[in-house]
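RESIDUES AND SHAPES:
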Amino acid sequence: MLKETPQLAPDGQPFRLTTLRNSAGMVVTLMDWGATLLSCRVPLKDGSVRETLLGCASPEHYLQQSAFMGATVGRYANRIAGGKLTVGGEMLQLEINQGENQLHGGPEGFDKRRWRIAVQNEQAVTYELDSCDGDQGFPGKLRATARYALTEDNRISIELRATVDKPCPVSLTNHAYFNLDNVQSDVRQHKLQLLADSYLPVDASGLPAGELKEVVSTSFDFREPKTLAQDFLADVDQQITKGYDHAFLLQAKGDLSQPVARVWSTDGALEMKVFTTAPALQVYSGNYLAGTPARDKESYSDWNGLALESGFLPDSPNHPEWPQPDCWLKPDETYLSVTEYQFLPH
């Protein structure tokens, strides 16, 4: 179902909202501006319905937030140090938008664009976007597609594809914030299991600070489920970033059949499983959400939502030594990243 809003986006056109439904009664809403996930409502065993995504009151409010809420981000998710890339021995300067660095594709990244609706029905919608040579400083023309599907077993399946005509680092992701409680509570009371043996320490700006570190005997060990609160701010690596905002290298190594993470609501009534073909997951506990416009109240507070962003490790274009696939896309290749969020009422 497609609906156009009376409010207009920055390009003078209405926001176009698409609603997906399955036979279990789950309802997912998206918009074409930023190919953004707006809402994900899941029926529980007791007959109630739970909103699982943070969101704004209406589409135009998404223009007033800087948390990338629910958006499809690119060309390159996460941070690139100094906004610098080396291509064939030549240094390229990207547009910067977080201190001296580039975050999530730059100041006018894919989250701030109108995506074309290519195909849609009640089960899925496919968005397309063209990015010109030099867009945000990146080399080459890029074409991206983002397909969002709602399956009968309560999965939001996200397929992100891209092609380029010059070598370019590509990492697309969705930046949803989850809260599985029936009120927008402190997400640190959620339980998290993360099937990852190592994480990447970062400095205060979120850039890599040294080598990958084993999670064993650290606050970053979520191999067995525990609340985010249990070891919150327990060590310097967390204190630097006001909580969890770190990439974990996943055990699944791109195997979509294996869950990489599981999250449980505070009351245990709802579980979410995460699957992805990406090598890493950025776990962000919403440390700087305060003041972000909210759906049911004026604004969110810090730690109201948990983002689990699939992709490469941060600043990967400048770290070919890391044990993950190459993040540079070549003209004869197609980038494909698939991530699924499955909701299981208990």
Remarks:
- The chain has one helix and 28 strands.
- Residues 236-239 form the longest helix (4 residues).
